[in-house]
Structure formats: structure tokens, C-alpha cells
Batch of 4 targets.
Target 1
Amino acid sequence: YTLSLHDALPISAARRSGGLSVRRLYIGRAILAIAWAAGFAAAGGQLSTTSKLLLVAYPIIDITASVIDARSQRGLNSGPVQRLLLVNAGVSTGALIALAVAIDQGPSTVLHIFGAWAAISGLMQLTVVLRRRPQLGRQSAMLVSGALSTIAGISFNVLATASDPKLTSLAGYAGLGAVLSIAAASRLRATGAAQP
């Protein structure tokens, strides 16, 4: 094991540095999610060519964010968080593949895949937030986001069993996630990235 420059920083400096990276990631992810939600809503929630492309593209946002976040993890107790983020990237990759393969089977299949992915990712997010409390503080907005993602995932699977399931709720799901990401980023800025 080689001591990195980040590991050698004082704890307060490492926390501020980590908080800055996470805050930027939250903002970037929120911007992409808002754009996605607007595009999907404009497509009317139908399985058109545009909405199919958007549905397959959405997991890429999560994959990219998880990998960037994992690569930014340094210092004390970063290993478990990094592993969780990489596992989440793997789960999102699975969702991407499943959507690409099965998207032509109809809205019900899409909702089942999206629902399973949202529920699992929500639980992973809750775990990551709890692991990061010593570094970034309570992160209430991200706790709420993880819980809502899990609940939304379950509800998507329930909606999928309807006789004529609609995909319009997916835009609202992405939009709400973006709002909570912005709230979390604002909280990190207000608290100085969890200063001790």
C-alpha cells in the first residue's frame, strides 16, 4: 500500500475535498436527469424511437456517476464505499443490457426492469449515504432519494401489472431525483462539505 497525497491530507481538508467532488457530481447528475426527464416527457411516455433511446441511455448516467464517484474515493474507510459504488455501476449495467434486449416487449417489461433497477439502486444509495456520514454528514436529501427510489421501484412493478401500463411516471421519478440531488449539493455547500 502506497500512501497517496490525498491520504496524507489533514482529515478536515480531505473532507472538504471529498465533499467538493461529490457536490459537483450531484449537480452534474441532476442536470442530466432534468434533461432526460424533459425529453422523456416530451416524447409522451410512449415507446417511440426517441423514448426507447432515452430509456436505454438513462442507466448510462448512473453508471458514469457511480464510476466517477468510486474513482474519487480516497483516504480512510473509502474501500467499502468504493466497492458499493462499483457494484451499483454493475447493477446499472445489467439494467442497461436488459432494457436494450427487452425494450420492444412493451411498457410492462420496461416497468419491471426499471422497477427492479430503481429498488436495488435505492437500497445501494442508502447504504452508501450511511457509510459516508463521517465524511459528508447526514445527507438527508440523499437518504430520502434512496428511500424514494426503492419505493418507486416497487411501485413501477405494481404499475407493470395493469392492463394498460403507462411510462409517464418515469419522467417524474427522474425529475424528483434531480431535485433531491440539487438539494444535497446545496446542503454540502452550506455546511462546508461536512467540516469537522
Note: Residues 145 and 177 are 6 Å apart (CA to CA).
Target 2
Amino acid sequence: LVGQVKAGVPDALVGDPDRVRQVLLNLLAHTIKLTRRGEVVLRVERDSASEEEATLHFTLADTGPAAPREQQDAIREALSSGKDPGARNLQNADLGLTISAQLAQTMGGEITFEGSEAKGNAFHFKAAFRVEPDATALARSRPSVPRGLSAVVVAAGPALRCALAETLEAWKMKAAPTDGARAAGRVVLGHLGVVV
């Protein structure tokens, strides 16, 4: 399981953390169930924003093959049932998706699903939040990050390697992602400063 908050996501938002948590846990459970092999990734990025509001886009995806077509259709039906309160013809497993879709709507957003053999499965959850006006004070209180250093990122999974490298680069560090000790050793011999 890899979690990544992309650069540009505001530091402080006002919303309903219990609803966001419920939706994310439900979608994460479904993503894990659909994953036959590979990694599961939760990414958060800023979809749109103004000074007063930000819409975040949460993506829960796996790197394995896509779910069977029938299962994808059942997921899409459960999500669309969340838009129609009169729809009740659901299996228990799909009820959580329907409730999550309804919660997303109450937060000014939506949930969609896509599955493809090339990319695997992905749930997309968007929700609107109010931007906390004192966020600049929070940003200033964060510990400083040593900028300009070079770092070797050693991780077996490509999604984790990518997430760590992007985070370090957002901190203005130079990242050298590798998939194992031998590759990391070659990079370290090239005189990088920090091994992560």
C-alpha cells in the first residue's frame, strides 16, 4: 500500500474528516479486494482551487490486471445507485459503494471507477473543501527540509519508488530511484549524499 499527497494540496482544509475517512476506507477495501497482484496506491492531488475552496481528487488504484467485466459493471451500478436514492436492488458488498457515492455527493463531489487491462483498476473520488485561511501560518511552522541534497531511493515496488522520488523532488532534493541494493550501490558510488 502506497500513499502519496501530491505537491499543491493545501496544508489546511475545512471539511468532514469522518465522511472522507469512511469513503476512503470503503474504496480502499474494494481496491484491495480487486487486486490480484501488484501494488495499491492512494494518491491525493488538487483538482481545482480558489482562495476559498479546493477540490481534491483522491485516486485509489492497483497495478494488477483489471477486474472481470461483470465485476466492473456491478461496481458502476452500485456507484450510480448512490445517485438514485430509490434504487435498492444491491448486494450487501455493493451497499458500501452506494453509501460512499452518496457521501461524496454531500461533499460536493463524486466517485467514478475505471478498469483496463493496461492500467488495472482505479476509483476516483472528488470532494470540495473550504481552504483554512490560516494555512500560511501552518506552512511556516513545518520543519525545514534540506534542499539541494541528493538521495537514493531504494524500493522494490515501482509505485513506491515513484512516490518517494516525487516527494523528495517536491522538497527540492535530487532523487535517484533504484530497485535494489546493487543499483543503489552504483548510485552511491556516484557520490550522492543521503540513502533513504
Note: The helical segments are 17-34, 69-81, 92-106, 135-141, 158-170, 181-189.
Target 3
Amino acid sequence: IIEEGITEMNGTFSDCTALTDASGLVIPKSIKSLHGTFSNSGLVNVPNLSNLTNLTDMTQTFKDCDNIVDARELNLPNGLISMDSTFMYCSNLKHAPNIPSTVENMNQTFYVCTNLTEIPNIEGVNKLKNLSATFWGCSSLTYVNTTIPSSVTNCNNTFANCPSLQGEIRINCTTEYNHWGTPAKMVVSHTQGCTH
């Protein structure tokens, strides 16, 4: 039993390779940080986090969890701010969770998730600032058609090393964007109002 009142579960189940099911895990509502909580574990079934209204940090929460295929059951709560490297190197992840509108940082969130087949909806994530290398190396992505929120200031290498990716992304004029590594069949255009 994890007691109510604690605010961090940083690294709690890290390297627990025998842990496969967290779907019934009751995490206290007082939790603010799940930094590295399940990293490099054997997790297959993820916990439902919808009641964690104080949760702000999910940095590396599931990093190197090779057995997770579907993360939609997470039901991420509004209030979440950082998803920095949350699913980094989750090589079998196919289905991403919802992204709450409060998220600001998605740096390397799905970095080298080689089985991810579609990106989550980010168009309504209107506080989002950092999309740097978010989908780097997601080699199973084949199509995307999305508008990057105008709040984003950095989307350098967002889709780098996604060799099969086609489609279009639309970015704001003031967003920093590095074309290095952008797939050849990908169209990057600017939203209306740009003068350059």
C-alpha cells in the first residue's frame, strides 16, 4: 500500500523486471512526480492515472519498458506538465496515450519507439512548448497530418529518422524548426499569416 500524502514515486519500480501488471495499482492522489517510476521494468499493463490531479512530472516514467504495447489505459490527467522522455526506447509501444492540454514539455517523449504507428493528437495541447525529437526514430510511422500548436517554440528534429513518414505538418512562423532528418516525403508548411 502506498500511503496518501507522499508526493514523489521517483524510481520506485525502476529495474523491476518481474513487474508486468500495474493496472490495479492504486497511486495516491497526492503524487506530483513519477520520474523514472517504472523505467526498465517488465511492465505490460499500465496503471490508470486519471485521478492523479496533482501529477505534473512524468519524466522517464516508462523509459526502456520494452513490453508495453498499449498506453491508452493511462488516461493521463489534466495538470500534467512534463512528458520528457516518458516512453523513450519503448520499442514495442504501438498505441500512445492521450496528451492532456496542460502538457508543456514533450522533449523525446516517444524517442525510438520503433513500433509506434500513429502520433497522439497534439493540436489541442495549447500550452505545449517543446517538441524537440519527440518522435525521433519512430520508424513505423507512415503518415501524419497535423498542425503544431502556436505555443510551441521548439520542434527541432521532431520527426527525424522516421524514414517511411509522409504527410504534412503545419508550424507557426516563430517556431524553431530544424529540417535536419525530416523524411523526404514530408511536407513542412507554415500556418496562415506568415510573411516569409
Note: Strands lie at 143-147, 166-171, 186-190.
Target 4
Amino acid sequence: LFVCPILSLLLVSVASADEPLDPETTLRTLVHANAERDLATMSKYMSHDVDAVGYTIDGRKYEGWPTLAADMRSEFDSVVKLEIPITKLQFWRHGDVAWFAMELDYIRHVNRGEQPMVLPLRETGVMERRDGRWILVTWHESTRHHHRGTEQASPDETALQRVAESCRMATQFNSTYKAWHLWSLTNFELIQFYER
């Protein structure tokens, strides 16, 4: 009689052991899920709030989960492979809220045997711990350019130069007694926290 409750407790313990316990591990899990084209895992660690806002390259804005999920499905269907190595990641944390600045290369393999498209990106975002699980609440993604001065930009970067380099984003959300403002500036990210 007592075997079932004990077994269920063990199974719950094993399942929760696989859960990322901190915001950095959660973010790395999200990036890995994106590379593996695993929308279910992405869904698990991203906000489904109706007013959740995310900004991505080419000026696209996502509000809520359904539109982002539809675009992710379309992206996953359009490639044979994705690679997303993180080249730089910095985290800050205060209580149940964490924020990050990250650089990564989004590598799209459209056809086998052909040269992949490499998009050098930078991202900033805010995560919140809800019921013990870290969730990506808001993010801003833009291109980063390695070629300056007289050097030629790569074809991938040239195609993305439509994105304004002096893009500014201000997203605010309230979490109990805290408010967060996230600004994305041209070559660095600044995140300011204040208590009400």
C-alpha cells in the first residue's frame, strides 16, 4: 500500500532533479532547446503572459506566446539544422528576478552541404522565478557587427543592416513591488533596477 506513494515521490524527485535550478542554467537550456528545435522545452521556460513582450531582429515584436510559437515553428521547418553557440554571457540577480546580456551566433543550415548563414546576435533579457521555476519574461535581440571601418561586412551582416544600430528598447513590467527597466543601447546593454 505504501509502495505507490513512495514510488511517486521518487519519480517526482527524479523529474524535478532535471529542472534547471538557476537562471543561467535555465537560459542555457532555452538556447539548447532552440538549437534542437524543441518548442515544447522552450514553451516550458518562456512566459505565456498575454502582455509578455519580446523584440527580435528586423524590428519584429512579439506579444504573448502564440505568435512567437508560430514563428518558431516556421523557422524550425525552414532549416535542416540550427547551431547556437553562446560566445559571451553575463548574469545579474536580485531575489526572484535575474537579467542577462548575452552574445551568440545563430547558425542556420538551410540545405545540407551548403554554407550555413551565420547571424552574430546579442541579447538582453529578464527572467523571473515563478513557483520555483525560472521563466524568460522579456528579451531584446539585435545583431552585432564585427566588421568596422574599411572592412567589408559579411553577406549575412549586410542583409541585416536594416536593423537600426541605435535601437532603444524600454520594456517595463511589474513584479509585486519591483519594477524593471531594460534598455538596449547600440554596443552595450544597460539594465537598471529600482525598488518602489
Note: The chain is about 30% helix and 40% strand.
